[in-house]
Amino acid sequence: MDEIRPILTVDVVLFTIRGSDLCVALQRRDREPFAGRPALIGGYVHVDEDADTLATAGRVLRDKAGLAGLFLEQLATFSGPGRDPRGWSASVAYYALVPEARLAPVLERGSEIVPVEAIPPLPFDHERIVAAGVRRLRNKGAWSSLPAFLLPEHFTLPQLREIYEVVLGMALNDSAFRRKIDELQVIEPVAGAFSRASDRPARLYRLRQEALQEFNRMV
Amino acid sequence: MDEIRPILTVDVVLFTIRGSDLCVALQRRDREPFAGRPALIGGYVHVDEDADTLATAGRVLRDKAGLAGLFLEQLATFSGPGRDPRGWSASVAYYALVPEARLAPVLERGSEIVPVEAIPPLPFDHERIVAAGVRRLRNKGAWSSLPAFLLPEHFTLPQLREIYEVVLGMALNDSAFRRKIDELQVIEPVAGAFSRASDRPARLYRLRQEALQEFNRMV
After folding, report:
1. By C-alpha distance, which of A170, A153, A162 is closest to A205?
2. pLDDT tens digits for range B82-104
């Protein structure tokens, strides 16, 4: 009985922000089951090349989305006899954050970027995995530097606040937000760098090295 | 290549509190690899009977520790080619909380209860799994009703504070603790019930039904 092994896959909830929408990348499946249906980006664990399931997630993102160097964290493992028609399966789910400016290779490989409020019916238990990803992002986003991984390397404080507002799904008081960001000590000004996108030049910031290292990153 | 399937197991970090020590149950392995070595309680996923890996964890706890109806939550999945000499493997790790008063069947089945500060070298990556469990428990314990699952059904406020102190690893101010517990709204007095363990009778409390339902429980 020990020798009937379940299927082991990895699925990635790839989050980005477009305008004021928190979005997920969905890719049409190129094989059965559910060929042609949009689903999360994922794949089998390859025992001959993957160092662990985090490496599987990294490989899948490189091969199927053209992305590397993202924030990537394990979400949870979803399992059971009914989620995949091929048999008893477990999928180790990850979520990743990609700034909108880096979406080109994702779109080139045929992914759609869909607001989390408008996700179509998905195969397997991918809707459940997306919902778990949104919950995790909202919980973590409230007290960590995590939403900043959705921004380009340099950003203004108003841009940062907007990203937090989208992730948390609520408007934030600007001075309370600035106090919170000060407390977290996760960003630093970029010496001499200003954004000229609005009327007044706005100072540009970046994540501090310590904040970057606090998190799992793709190899 | 898709058909070389990894090994899929479940391991459970079974926490309890003895005196003022946060402890974990370790069981000597009854088969290779690492036969005779103390390790976490775990086992293979049985695709013919388990509804998911949570059900595997429940079955393993029933069969190997004589326990049911505990707080049980998924921790993370640990994986790779090197953690198990039988080949590329993934273990979905759970943690469970058991009150000391319910340890008899665990001890009868040959488990040892070991303080987390005195864990011996463990096979596989079980030390890493225990460390992840301790981190999760300490993080969650700070703001949830979770530590109360380490107590008998009825408990006094001083008993509850002691459990929080052990879980968090620090002394707590009594009135600040009571305010925090009030805020959480997770316990309620048991009508007319008092403990006579100390000089003055102390009111007995229990977890509210809503607090119980908030968490995964074993079926």
Report:
1. A153
2. 999 999 999 999 999 999 999 99
**A77, A129, A135, best to mutate vs chain B, most B CBs in 10 Å:** A77
Which pLDDT score is estimated for A217?
Answer: 52
| CA neighbor of A163 nearest in space, from A174, A172, A150 | A150
Which CATH topology does A7-139 take? Nucleoside Triphosphate Pyrophosphohydrolase (3.90.79)
Residue B52 and residue A79: Cβ atoms within 8 Å?
yes
Q: Nearest chain A Cα to B93, which residue?
A: A77
What pLDDT is stored for residue B180 in this prediction? 85
Q: How far is CA B213 from CA A4, A80, B106, B217, in A?
A: 34, 22, 25, 8
Distance from CA of B4 to the nearest CA of A (A): 7
Q: Domain B146-213, CATH 3.30.390.10 — does that match? A: no
Q: Where in chain A is the domain with CATH 3.90.79.10?
A: 7-139
Q: Is CATH 3.90.79.10 the classification given to domain B7-141?
A: yes
Smallest CA-to-CA distance from A16 within A154, A150, A180 is with A150
Could you give the residue range(s) of every CATH 1.10.10.10 domain in chain B? 146-213
pLDDT, average across residues B114-128: 97
**Which of B52, B72, B94 is the best substitution to test chain A (most A C-beta atoms within 10 A)?**
B52
Question: What residues contact residue A97 under an 8 Å CB cut-off, 6+ apart?
Answer: A15, A16, A70, A71, A137, A146, A147, A149, A150
From B189's Cα to the closest Cα of chain A, the distance in A is: 31
